[in-house]
Amino acid sequence: MKNVTIDGIEYMPVTTAEKELAKKYKGMPYCIVRTYSAGVFAGYVEKREGKEAVVRNARRIWYWEGAASLSQLAVDGTSKPTKCKFPCEVPKVELTEVIEVIECTQKAKESINSVAVWEQ
């Protein structure tokens, strides 16, 4: 099925996998989480207490291009996905020393998830 535009708004079909993921993580915001020493992660924030957070379906944002900052990455995503180095997703990561949580737009989430898994 193709995208459809109604009143200037473009709508995309949702796959079964996307529906299941939305159901599983309902109510959990997709965010970029920066820590003091463990790096940066993108995923669904399940729980946050003080400087600790539990992130589901988390990808480490090891290296990126195509966004000037994490703020722009959270809003626009990356304009250079082939230049980014985001390793595989992990089901759950418990992070300590969280110093920044930025909620992502749908556009940014799709962009981050479109980056191929970086492997050595």
Supply the number of structural domains.
Answer: 1
Q: Roughly what fraction of the amino acids lie in strands? A: 35-45%
What is the overall number of helices?
Answer: 3
What sequence of helices (H) and strands (E) makes up the elements? EEHEEEHEEH
Which characteristics define this entry?
120 residues; alpha+beta; five-stranded antiparallel sheet; 21% helix; globular
Notes on the structure:
The chain is 21% helix and 36% strand. The mean pLDDT is 91. With 120 residues, it is α+β, with helices and mostly antiparallel strands. The radius of gyration is 15 Å and the shape is globular. It contains three helices and seven strands, in the order ββαβββαββα. It has a single domain (27-114), classed as SH3 type barrels (Roll).
List the helices and strands and how they pair.
Layout: E1 4-6, E2 9-11, H1 16-24, E3 30-35, E4 40-49, E5 52-60, H2 70-76, E6 90-95, E7 98-103, H3 106-114
Give the gist of this structure.
It contains three helices and seven strands, in the order E-E-H-E-E-E-H-E-E-H.
